[in-house]
Amino acid sequence: MRRTSARFKLASVAAIATAVATLGALTASSGSAAEVPQDTVSTLAVGSPTGFGAGTTGGAGGTTVTVTNASQFTEAVQRSGAVQVRVNGTISLSSMTKVSANTSILGVGTSGRITGSGLNVSGVSNVIIQNLTFSGSNDDAINIENSTRVWVDHNTLSSAYDGLVDIKRASDNITVSWNRVFSHDKTMLLGHDDGNASQDRGKLRVSYHHNWFDGTNQRNPRVRFGNPVHVYNNYYGGVTSYGVASTKEAGVLVEGNYFENTKDPFHLGEGSSPAGTLVARNNHFVNSGSGQAGGSVNGIPYSYSLDAASSVKSIVQSGAGAGKI
Description:
- This protein is mainly beta.
- Helices cover 10% and strands 33% of the residues.
């Protein structure tokens, strides 16, 4: 099978530099959001997604807006039409904030932060969330439901009330890549209920790659119904309860990951949910259990490049999280 690189391809540096200069020139002294007209730049997101989220373009080609406070942020991410929202500063949200279709939300350097609550990607398509630091949400950091073509990339997430990246209710064709997650219990849920087969069966196909699960507890991810779900080239360091759980009709390929100080890397079933299936191959274990696998998983329908599992720790620690693009 021909394989193409799973690494992100850098966007045009010149295009980004031009956009940043233009935005700086347009910033108003009144503190209103600065805007760049449509087609000034094609996209400000760095790289493009591989895996199930391939083809997600977010707000490429649309208006670019730089925001510095919650009111500007909320207005920008809820616009109709393509929009690229650059977050420059800390956005303090009081409740889960709906995100419109065809939207990119991009942190500026290391300054883009969202706290207080999180983002609700619900009933939409074509959304990019990149280079942001999320902390202290009163709900999820990122909730994705009834949505397709979503890319969650190069974010740092911690300390939410519920999940950090929860995906549910027939969502499909999503990539979660190069994120660092820490100081959290229920990290990433995929499929919210065993009784939701009529909506979820045949959907919930997600690629999780090059994420750093840094001492998180469980749900890294916990999967229902999605088949195949591809968990590859992630670094699990000091995960305290378990890494991956395949439950209720799920089929998960756990491939080329690095598990360190993780007693239970992956298993079948969880809580009251019955076992799904899980295939494990080419993983690397350091002071960790060997995991529980069983059954077969549907074939991965896309080409990808797999890093050697023994190199994944250094690759991911160097590249995952906000400020690393």
